Amino acid sequence: MSPPPRARRTPGWLWLSLMSFTALMLLIAYETRWVHPDIHAYFSQSGNLTGQQLATRSREYLEESLGILLEESDPDAVQRASFQIELGYGLFDIGLYRNEYACTEPNLQRLDALNDSLGQGVVPPPDSLSQGLLQPIRCLTEIEMDQLDYRSAVTNRFVEETRHHQTLVLVGSLVIYLLGLVFWGMHVFKHRLADRATRESLRWMAQALQDPLTGIGNRSALHDDVLAEKGGTMALLLIDIDYFKQYNDALGHPDGDQLLRELVALIDRALSGKARLYRMGGDEFAALLPCDDPRTLASAAASVVEEVRRAALPHPDHPAGTHVTLSVGGVQFTAEPEAFAAAYVAADRALYRVKAQGRDGWQLGATAVEESRYGFTGK
Ligand SMILES: Nc1nc2c(ncn2[C@@H]2O[C@H](COP(=O)(O)OP(=O)(O)OP(=O)(O)O)[C@@H](O)[C@H]2O)c(=O)[nH]1
């Protein structure tokens, strides 16, 4: 049998937002760490002569040699001029100039020829001297200008590209940031929805266990609470109003409802707030309280009956008196599902024994206590 297909997990909004913010951080790191060295490398040219700088220096050597030859003609000056021309030649004779500037080759030849004749001690007349040096100087000047133009064009392009790049980074950061915020908002929204659903479920669950008229627990709540007490020794009292039908008939159902609420408060007071109360339906209540001793059970049952007697709530149509009375059946039991079921039957029987014997009293269930030993019944 093939295993069931695994449910595909989609990343939640929280993860999406965290991923967006991580992407944003990476983008910023890229911008500050990777781009910066590029800019630095481009603008920092210390130690490297550029195409323009070589041409400038070469031209300066040639101009110097021209100045020497025009002013002096002694052999020493000629030698110095020849040396300057050689230096200028060396800086002029590079691949970049030869490949890209047509004037380079013929002017290098002119310099060669001039230097040859200077080497033989022959200083050309001023006209041809000017030709021999001025032409290369002019060529070098053109190269300088062109290289300057080239450099500013490259710089402009680089600045433009950098600006474009920065705009992209800015827009990208903004988009990622906004996406992150949206994802985060979705996460918070979803979280709130889940919270609300949980609160709603808890409210429904609480309502499902509550009697809406009196606000105390209902029959299901009693079962749940008994299960929660697992193994504990408890007392269960079943409490029924005597002649409630007549009360309703005489005073109306709203007054009947009010009596139900008042009795809850009285029963609670009788048991000193130590019992949990439940409405089992109609005019029947239950009380659940911890009870290690049958005497506690008897005194709890008696207290409930006494408290209502003391309250002397008028009952205009009570066949046997003038005030509201209660019948109570009690039992002690161990909080286990089966023991509880038996205890409930025993308490119910005890209650009906009270009813059968004229009401307004209490009895304890035989399964829980040895009636013969304690004889706990009360009028
Ligand atoms: N006002 C009101 N009456 C209710 C409510 N639920 C049940 N009752 C009434 O409670 C009465 C219970 O009547 P019975 O079961 O005959 O009990 P009883 O009249 O108290 O008689 P005994 O228990 O034998 O003393 C009925 O008349 C129901 O209409 C409720 O929520 N509000």
UniProtKB/TrEMBL annotation:
Residues 232-367 form the GGDEF domain. Its EC number is 2.7.7.65. GO terms for biological process: cell adhesion involved in single-species biofilm formation; negative regulation of bacterial-type flagellum-dependent cell motility. GO terms for molecular function: diguanylate cyclase activity. It holds the Pfam family GGDEF. It is an enzyme of class 2 (transferase). The keyword Calcium does not apply. The chain crosses the membrane at residues 12-30, 167-186. The keyword Transmembrane applies. Keywords: Membrane, Nucleotidyltransferase, Transferase, Transmembrane, Transmembrane helix. It catalyses: 2 GTP = 3',3'-c-di-GMP + 2 diphosphate. PROSITE patterns: GGDEF. GO terms for cellular component: plasma membrane. This is diguanylate cyclase. It comes from Halomonas lysinitropha. The gene is ycdT_1.
